[in-house]
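the two lines:
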Amino acid sequence: MARLVIDPVTRIEGHLRVEATVNGGKVKDAFSSCTMWRGLEIVLKGKDPRDAWAYTQRACGVCTTVHAIASVRAVEDAIGAKIPNNARILRNIIMANQNVQDHIIHFYHLHALDWVDVVSALKADPVKTSELAKSISSWPKNSATYFKAIQDKVKAFVESGQLGIFSNGYWGHPAYKLPPEANLMAVAHYLEALDVQREIIKIQALLGAKNPHPQTFVVGGQSTPVDAESQNALNADSIAFMLKYADMALEFVEKVYIPDLLAVASFYKDWAGIGGFNNFLACGEWPDANGKMYLPGGVIKNKNLAKIEPLDHKKFKEYITHSWYKYSKGDVGLHPWEGETTPNYTGPKPPYEYLNVEGKYSWGKAVRYEDLPMEVGPLSRMLVAYGLGHKDVKEVVDMVLKKLGVGPEALFSTLGRTAARGIETLLMAKKTKDYILELAANMGKGDTKIADTDKWAPKSWPKECKGVGLHDAPRGCLAHFIVIKDGKIANYQMVVPSTWNLSPKDHKGQRGPVEEALVGTPVADSKLPLELLRTIHSYDPCMACGMHMIEVKEE
Amino acid sequence: MERETIYEGLVRKGVSRRDFLKFCATTAAVLGLSSSYVPKIAEAMEKKQKPVVVWLEYQDCAGCSESILRAEKPTIGQVVLDVVSLEYHETIMAAAGHQAEKSLHDAVKNYKGKYLVVIEGALTDKDGGIYCTIGGKSNVDIAKEVCKDAMAVIAVGNCACFGGVPAAKPNPTGAVGVKDIIKDKPVINLPGCPLNVENFTATVVYFLTFGKLPAVDKLARPLFAYGKLIHDNCERRGHFDAGEFVKAWGDKGHRQGWCLFQMGCKGPMTYHNCPTIRWNEGVSWPVMAGHPCIGCSEPKFWDNNLYASTDKDSFYAKVGLGAMAVSGLISKKKTE
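prediction for all of em together
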C-alpha cells in the first residue's frame, strides 16, 4: 500500500498536510493535519472584550470579516447589547459581499486549476472557443479575437520559460477532461476574475476603511457613521457607489461564474459520485429586522433531507484523541465553554517524513455534534434550505440539477459541493443589492443610530457573563464562545468551519469530513495527487482559522 | 534563454505605452518622488529583467497575500505574469506537495543570488519549530535555507516585521519577526495589518529603478511609506487642533468627521502613509471611515488597548482638554 503525502497543500489559506494510503488506485484511508499553531486564544486572555474582534479577525485574512463578526456577536450576546437596524444591515451587506467575493476567488483561483489544464488551452481553436462561450452566455468578452489574444499571452508566457505560479502544475494529467476550448475559456475567466474580485470588494473598503481586515466592527454595532446629510458619513453617494459594484458582481456571477460552473461540471459528472459526506450542519445567516434568517440553520444526519433538526450549540463537543493537546479529565469530549486545552506535541521532530497517524497528528481538534462529524459550508446551507423548501434556493438548485441532468443525490459529492458554492454566490449577489437598498431606505428615514452606545462602557456589563457568536461564514458555521469576568476576557474559544471539515479522527476513530470524503477517491498516479486536491479544495480549507484552541481559563 | 524585461512583458500582456507610463507615474507618487523621476523608472522597467520572487508564508493569516491580490497598478494579473516572476507562493500556486517543494528548490538553485524573498507571517523556533512546519520541515530551517542565497528579503505585514499578532503577550509560540532570524541579508520591513500593496509595489520598483534598497528608519521601514506620522497627514487634524472630538459611535461629531483621538486613535504615534495613499485604490482608510487608527505599522501594537482611551479618566480623555498643548508635545517628541 502506497503512503502519499501532500504538504504543503497549496491554494488554500494556511498550512495543511494530508497523508493518505492508496491501494489498487484508490484512497483507503486519509489523515488531515493542521501544521501551524499560534495560540490566539491564549493571547486573548485578560484582554478587553471590545478588542477581541480585531485579534480574532487576524485568524484569517482570506475570510477577513468572519471572525470579527462572530466575535462582536459573542460579546453582544454576553453583555446584552442590541445592535441597531443600521448596524444589522451594514453587517448583512459586508457578509454578502464577503461571501460573493470569497466564493469567486475560491472557484477561479484556488479550485479551478484542479479541473482546468492551462497548457491544454494552447491547443484551443479561438473561433470554437468563442462559439462555446456564446452558446452559454451573453458576456461581452467572448469574441474569437479576445480568446486569441488570451491564448497568445499564455503562449508567450509558457515560451518565456518562467512559469512562475504555474510551474510544476499537473498539466497533461489524465484526470483533466476538458476540451482545449473549455480550458481556454476558463483561463480567460481566471484572469478576468482577478480583476473582478479586486473591484467588487470595494464595497467593504467603503464600509470598512480597507480590505483585507476591514476596520469598522465595534461591540454594539458598527463604527462607520450613517447620515444622508453629511459628507463624512455613509450617504446617498455611498449607496450609488455600492450599487455599482454590486451590479458588477451580479453580472459576473450570472454571465461568467454560473455558465462556467455548468460547462466545467458537465465534463466531470463522475465527480458527482466521489467525495461525498453524510452529515451537514448550518447555523443560518442574514437576519432580517425580526431576526429571521434568509438562509436557515439546521442539522442533517445521514443525508436525510426529510428530517432537518434545529441546531443547538450545546451539543458541540471537542475531542483531542488525535490532536496535540491534553485534557485534565482524560480522553473526553468538552463543550467549548467548558473546554480546556494544553498543548501536548507528541509528533515527530522536524524534519520528518511521515506523521504517526496512530497517535496524535494535528493541531486541530475533532469537533463533533452529538458525537457525529459534520460538514459545514455552502453545501450544508443549500441542503438545509433545500430540505426545508426554501423558495429561492430550490429554484436555483433545481435549475442547476436540471441543466446537468442529475438528481438531488448528486449534491452529496465533490461536484455537488462545488456547485453549491456557485449557487449560493448567485443568491447572495442578488441579496447584496437588496441589503444596499434596505440601507438606503433606512437612511432615508433619518435613522443615524449605528451602535448600542449604552452598553459601550464595561461598567454597564454584568460582573460575570458568557456569550456565543454564531456566523454562517463563506466556509461554514463559525462559533465564538466568550466568558467575561470583571470586564476582561476569562475564556475565549473559536470553533471554526475548518475545525469541522478538516478535523482529525475522534475518540471513536470516526474520520473528519475531508478524511472520510477522500476515502475511495481514484488516484491515477500517486506521485501526482490531483484527484485528492479536487476533494480537499472543494471544502475550501482555511487552516489558520482551524488551528485553534487554547483554553483561556482563569488559573 | 534571455529573460524578457518587465516592459516587454507588459507589452506582451497588452498594456499600452500610455498605461505603462501611468503605472510609472503612480509608483513615483507612492515613493514620494517628483514627476521628473518618471522617465527614470520607465527606463529601468524597460531594461531590467523581471525579478524572481519567492514568497514564503509562516505564522500568517494570508491577509498580506490577499492584499497583493488587490493590486491595481499594476494589477495582480500583471504582477504574476509580467512584473515579477513569482516562483513560489503557496496561496495561489498550481503545484502542491512535492511538486510545490520542487518549485521552491528550483528557484533557489536556478536564480542563486538573484532572487528576492518575501516573508509573510511570524517565525517560530520554540520547541524545535513544531508550531509551524511545511513539508515536515521547521519554518525557521526553510527560511534560513531559502534566504541564504537571496539578494534581499522583504518582510511584509506586522507579523513578519515584528512578530505581529502571534507575538502579542504572552507570545505562546515564541513568534518573532524576520530580522530576529535572518541576520546576514538586508531585510526591509513593510509592516501594516495587512501590508498595503502599494507600498510593496513601490519597494520593488524602487529596487529596480535605483539598484538599491530604499532609505529606512531605525525599524527598517522605508521612509517613503513610514516617514511621517498618520497624525501629520490626517484629514481630521483640523478638528484635533480645534479640540473637536468624537465621544460616541454615531454622535454628531462622528457623523461630521471630527477627531477620533478620544475614541482611542493611535494616529499620533503611528508612522504610516494611510492618509495619503489610502486603501483599495484610494477608496478609504480607517480614520476616514470613522474608526480610530489601531497603530498596525508599529511594533507591539497588539499590546495596547484599541479603545481604552474612551474611559473617562484615561490619558486620552484628559488630553482632549488641551489638544493644542498635546499637538505641541507630539511634534516636539517627533523631532527628538
